[in-house]
């Protein structure tokens, strides 16, 4: 880890506009220019510390030193995460909610959502054969909305599919500083929460009876340490947080399709799947391509680290994108090499596409296993079950846009489903490996 003393400061008086304009590379570019993995700046008028690297991540995810309460920007609370959700909690309240979320992510339930998703994908592939051109990102958004709502126990009607898909997409797409996207995300959240509140009311009254293993049932009947049901708003926010992150997986799936196009040899390796290559490929997609840009927390109490005085309530921003490509942790970090994960040491702080640390006690995403399971399943399906051509299009990524994706949303043509042999069908019915960090 490189640290200059005294800790350097970014040149601009306030870096808010620079963060919006530079996106994913804001922290990384300054880290390199200042030759320090820690530097000071100001964001939205307040002093902030930006950090990168494995050692910084280990500190950031230490609950003795950092808290999430009050750290998340209000716009993100009102769109992506919700006010009163697990992301803004600490201590026993966070542990209690985390146990609730992890109870939804058992191997059995992950297998259920995997099967639901692959069934929806297979249905769509039948339709793709008859289409002149397929905008893959649009299609995957609908596929995952159908699958995850079914898995969550939500009574999604056919006439609601388009609306709920658009709402979930708008919430995920709201984080990048764009006023129109913020407004769309806020409207979408209000609609989602109203829908969920009604479902929770009906579930608690016994009018609607989802299976006990589903998030709808679990959240509706969850009680806090005092034995009280979650208030309706908090329950709706956390129920949304149980299934909405699946729509973020759309970006990883599209990045995987892009990787198979940019690095054609990977398709054949996924087909052979020696040494569980589809899993290694999924992990490298999460490391290599930009997804979550950064995470914020506030200092819990005064402390000194590497000679720098962190003061109580100081804002600290961790560079998630930069850590996944940090040269101290990754050899040839800017190259796409799935094989690197075959000998990876599984550090919970060097690889943080969905947060770092421990899933059970910390703030690492409880849905990470679901993400990897779905990615691996879809990539195998693309490689084994369909053929298609990729026409000329703009596949570039706008690194200032958060979240980013190929500008053309990845279009394909001439889709052809291959005949599914019994052996291949058995493989798709078997559970895949998931991350166990």
Mind explaining what this structure looks like?
- This protein has helices at residues 16-22, 26-34, 54-60, 74-81, 91-102, 107-128, 136-152, 161-172, 179-205, 215-221, 232-243, 249-262, 265-272, 277-288, 320-323, 368-385, 422-429, and strands spanning 38-43, 46-51, 66-67, 134-135, 295-299, 303-305, 308-310, 315-318, 386-389, 411-417.
- The protein has a five-stranded mixed β-sheet with strand order 1-2-8-5-3, with helices on both faces. A three-stranded antiparallel β-sheet has the order 4-10-9.
- The protein is α+β, with helices and mostly antiparallel strands.
- The chain is 47% helix and 10% strand.
Rounded radius of gyration (Å): 22 Å
Mean pLDDT: 90
Tally the beta strands. Answer: 10
Can you count the helices? 17
Q: How much helix, percentage-wise, in residues?
A: 40-55%
Distance between the termini: 23 Å
By helix and strand content, what is the structural category?
alpha+beta
Strand content: 5-15%
Helix-strand layout with pairing:
Elements lengths: L15 H7 L3 H9 L3 E6 L2 E6 L2 H7 L5 E2 L6 H8 L9 H12 L4 H22 L5 E2 H17 L8 H12 L6 H27 L9 H7 L10 H12 L5 H14 L2 H8 L4 H12 L6 E5 L3 E3 L2 E3 L4 E4 L1 H4 L44 H18 E4 L21 E7 L4 H8 L8
Parallel strand pairs: 2-8
Antiparallel strand pairs: 1-2, 3-5, 4-10, 5-8, 6-7, 9-10
Helix pairs in contact: 4-9, 6-7, 6-16, 7-8, 7-12, 8-9, 9-10, 9-11, 10-11, 12-14, 12-16, 13-16, 14-16
Structure summarized in a few sentences:
The chain has 437 residues and is of the alpha+beta class. The protein has helices at 16-22, 26-34, 54-60, 74-81, 91-102, 107-128, 136-152, 161-172, 179-205, 215-221, 232-243, 249-262, 265-272, 277-288, 320-323, 368-385, 422-429; strands at residues 38-43, 46-51, 66-67, 134-135, 295-299, 303-305, 308-310, 315-318, 386-389, 411-417. Helix 8 (161-172) packs across helix 9 and helix 12 (249-262) packs parallel to helix 16.
């Amino acid at each position: 880890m490189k640290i200059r003393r005294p800790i350097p400061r970014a040149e601009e008086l306030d870096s808010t506009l620079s963060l919006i304009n530079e996106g994913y590379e804001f922290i990384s570019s300054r880290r390199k220019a200042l030759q320090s993995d820690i530097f000071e700046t100001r964001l939205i008028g307040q002093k902030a510390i930006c950090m990168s690297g494995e050692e910084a991540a280990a500190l950031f995810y230490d609950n003795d030193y950092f808290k999430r309460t009050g750290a998340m920007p209000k716009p993100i609370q009102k769109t992506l995460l919700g006010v009163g959700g697990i992301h803004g909690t600490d201590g026993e309240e966070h542990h209690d909610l985390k146990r609730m979320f992890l109870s939804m992510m058992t191997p059995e339930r992950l297998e259920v959502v995997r099967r639901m998703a692959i069934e929806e994908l297979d249905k769509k592939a039948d339709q793709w054969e008859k289409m002149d051109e397929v905008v893959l990102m649009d299609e995957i958004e609908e596929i995952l909305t159908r699958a995850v709502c079914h898995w969550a126990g939500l009574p999604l009607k056919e006439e609601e599919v388009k609306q709920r898909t658009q709402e979930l997409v708008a919430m995920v797409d709201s984080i990048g500083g764009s006023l129109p996207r913020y407004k769309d995300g806020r409207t979408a959240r209000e609609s989602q929460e109203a829908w969920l509140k009604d479902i929770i009311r009906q579930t608690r009254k016994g009018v609607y009876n989802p299976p006990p293993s589903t998030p709808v049932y679990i959240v509706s009947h969850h009680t806090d340490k005092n034995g009280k049901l979650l208030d309706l708003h908090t329950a709706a926010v956390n129920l949304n947080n149980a299934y909405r992150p699946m729509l973020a997986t759309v970006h990883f799936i599209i990045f995987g399709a892009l990787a198979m196009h940019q690095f054609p040899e990977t398709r054949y390796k996924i087909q052979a799947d020696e040494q569980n290559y589809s899993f290694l490929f999924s992990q490298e997609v999460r490391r290599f391509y930009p997804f979550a840009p950064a995470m914020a927390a506030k200092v819990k109490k005064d402390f000194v680290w590497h000679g720098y005085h962190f003061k109580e309530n100081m804002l600290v921003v961790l560079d998630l994108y930069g850590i996944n490509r940090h040269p101290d942790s990754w050899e040839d970090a800017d190259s796409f090499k799935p094989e690197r994960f075959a000998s990876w040491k599984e550090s919970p702080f060097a690889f943080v596409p969905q947060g770092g640390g421990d899933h059970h006690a910390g703030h690492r995403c409880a849905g990470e296993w679901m993400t990897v399971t779905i990615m691996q399943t879809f990539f195998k399906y693309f490689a084994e079950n369909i053929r298609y051509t990729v026409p000329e299009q703009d596949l570039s990524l706008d690194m200032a846009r958060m979240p980013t994706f190929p500008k053309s949303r990845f279009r394909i043509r001439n889709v052809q489903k291959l005949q599914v042999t019994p052996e291949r069908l058995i493989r798709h019915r078997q559970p895949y490996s998931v991350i166990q960090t």
